[in-house]
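2024-03-11 09:14:02 DEBUG pipeline.ingest accepted 1 chain
2024-03-11 09:14:02 DEBUG pipeline.ingest length=124
2024-03-11 09:14:03 DEBUG pipeline.predict start
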Amino acid sequence: MLYVIWPEPLIVPGRPSLLTELIETAGGDSVTAQEGQAYVRFSVEAAVALAPQVIVLADHASANGHASGAGRPEPRSGAASPACRPIAPGRLYSVDLSILHRYGPTVVDGLESLARLIHPEAFR
């Protein structure tokens, strides 16, 4: 999977990040886990070349006091590069960054959210 922390410039988690650890714990494989830094700038072309099966975008609206659409199947228009949309039709999601980007009690909710997106069949 590809987790997008920030869309422009494209920022993704690398090996030493909490997000990569959560993705692996949820049963996923981060396509950017081989990166040596916690947070890495990526080009859209590099992300497309990794061919992720699932793309998850951090929903920054909830962090700014706006209503969150976390877990919705398709992010708002403009939230992701059009180049990313053909990679995983129907497997492009957004999650509330407030439950994934910080250590604390809500990280368990974030972990469950990721697991539901990565393996929806396990929650039916």
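2024-03-11 09:14:41 DEBUG pipeline.report The beta strands are 2-4, 10-13, 39-42, 55-59, 92-96.
2024-03-11 09:14:41 DEBUG pipeline.predict end
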